[in-house]
Design goal:
about 250 residues; mainly beta; five-stranded antiparallel β-sheet; four-stranded antiparallel β-sheet
Length: about 250
């Protein structure tokens, strides 16, 4: 009997510790159901305005079948260490794997330091906090494998294309597909390896500069081939154009 009471006490202590470990230093309760989490960061798009302010568009991937009633937002801190909630995320599109992409914007005059994602489905709350590490603007990729990245440059005859990819394997091909005649014709051009990410493990930068006619329309998308698979970033079907490079 004494042994049973001791085991019960140990079990209770372990449960309390598990709950305590599921709380961040800022008081944010994270999801402790490690076996299932319906919310994940998909990708991050960093935006820089003409006045130098910065913001990020956070694309959130949610299991479409996880709940009938859904809401999501981004909980973020600025350089002063204060934490805020973004405006509620809005449904953006649905992917072929029965997941949804929701979109939330975050911005701060003091700069963006860290962020986590909060999702509420049918009254249950889940968090994606990057396995306890939180996210930063350097986390360009979450579940996505490739992402076209904005640059702080004005568009001219020359357009630098920058892509971020996951280093899934050493042998890989990264290309831009672009058109200047509304896809009547198109060209595929290889991007070249630039450097590994210095802030996030397993991410790489690839780039190429295109010589274009600035008086013609221009659209492009990125594709990434590795291990017999092809991954696309075509801006969720809308493709990218000159506006992607225009300071806001």
């Amino acid at each position: 009997m004494k042994m049973k009471r001791t085991l019960k006490k140990l079990t209770a202590i372990i449960m309390v510790l598990a709950i305590l470990l599921g709380i961040q230093g800022n008081g944010t309760v994270i999801n402790t159901q490690a076996s299932y989490n319906p919310v994940k960061l998909y990708s991050c798009d960093n935006v820089y305005s003409a006045r130098g302010a910065e913001s990020s568009i956070i694309y959130i991937q949610i299991d479409a079948s996880s709940a009938a009633n859904k809401s999501a937002l981004v909980h973020f801190s600025d350089d002063t260490g204060k934490w805020y909630d973004s405006e509620p995320a809005t449904f953006f599109t649905k992917l072929d794997d029965n997941t949804e992409i929701w979109k939330a914007g975050i911005g701060s005059s003091n700069g963006i330091d860290e962020f986590v994602i909060k999702y509420v489905g049918d009254g249950k709350t889940y968090w994606d906090n990057n396995n306890g590490n939180n996210y930063t603007k350097s986390n360009i990729l979450g579940e996505a494998n490739v992402k076209s990245v904005r640059l702080r440059t004005h568009f001219s005859d020359y357009c630098e294309i920058l892509a971020c990819v996951k280093n899934i394997a050493y042998n890989k091909v990264v290309r831009v597909r672009y058109t200047q005649d509304n896809w009547a014709t198109y060209k595929d051009v290889d991007l070249k390896y630039d450097s590994p990410s210095t802030t996030v493990d397993n991410l790489e930068w690839w780039t190429v500069t295109l010589d274009l006619d600035k008086d013609k329309m221009f659209e492009y998308c990125i594709y990434y081939q590795v291990n017999g698979q092809t991954y696309w970033d075509n801006n969720f079907g809308a493709n990218y154009d000159r506006s992607f490079y225009r300071p806001l």
